[in-house]
Design goal:
Helices cover 29% and strands 22% of the residues. It has nine helices and seven strands; from the N terminus they run ααβαβαββαβαβαααβ. It starts with a helix and ends in a 6-residue tail after the last strand.
């Protein structure tokens, strides 16, 4: 049994809080790494649509219902119908494009009434963190091109007609509590690479921020 089976990723727990556990229509923008597998595990009955600039491998593609390969900075999302999505996920995507706020604004109309948007990105605070393997300081990743703040993201959600119901520094307490277990691997990373491994340090250091917006079911 994996750690993620017992403690789902932070974003999945937050999405469950606001969107529930039903057969959700999920749009995951920037579905790299293991995001499709983790999303499917947390929402087994979902319809999962993914967008990324690169084609996923066969194993990942197998858990995706619909995949669209595109450069999101072009803001061309006509392939996704407005009002068709229950959950919009933008997790560590905005920082890879210079017009991330415009990307967010262009995607918000895809949410149906009651739909939930979850956005996560490196905090401005990450500029002051030490460099680490797997990225702890913002510029550790050469593909990071733009910083964003909670005010920026929250205002775009508000301007897009959403109510911003949650947000701040990401603190995944199960992972923080278990962080001491990573001490041996951190020592190994220091000896091999001369720097810490960022894995397990994001929540302790406050590397990331998140925001959650919900589209009202009725106009006020």
């Amino acid at each position: 049994m994996k750690f993620s089976d017992i403690f789902p990723p932070f974003r999945m727990r937050i999405i469950r809080r606001y969107a529930g556990h039903g057969p959700l229509r999920i749009l995951d923008v920037g579905c790299a790494s293991s995001s499709p597998q983790l999303t499917r595990a947390s929402f087994p009955g979902c319809t999962y649509t993914a967008i990324d600039i690169a084609e996923p491998n066969a194993e990942t593609r197998a858990v995706i219902d619909s995949f669209h390969q595109m450069d999101i900075s072009r803001l061309d999302f006509e392939v996704i119908a407005d009002g068709s999505i229950d959950v919009l996920i933008l997790s560590h995507v905005l920082e890879h494009v210079s017009n991330g706020l415009d990307v967010l604004s262009a995607l918000l109309p895809k949410l149906r009434p009651g739909g939930v948007a979850y956005v996560e990105y490196p905090a401005i605070k990450s500029l002051g963190l030490p460099s680490a393997y797997n990225t702890l300081q913002f510029c550790d990743d050469p593909t990071h091109v733009q910083l964003y703040s909670l005010v920026d993201v929250g205002n775009r959600m508000l301007n897009g007609g959403l109510r911003v119901l949650d947000g701040g520094t990401r603190r995944d307490w199960p992972r923080i509590i278990l962080a001491p277990l990573s001490i041996p691997s951190q020592i190994s990373s220091l000896l091999k690479r001369g720097k810490l491994n960022a894995k397990g340090l994001w929540d302790i250091s406050g590397f990331a921020e998140y925001a959650v917006g919900v589209r009202p079911r009725e106009s006020v």
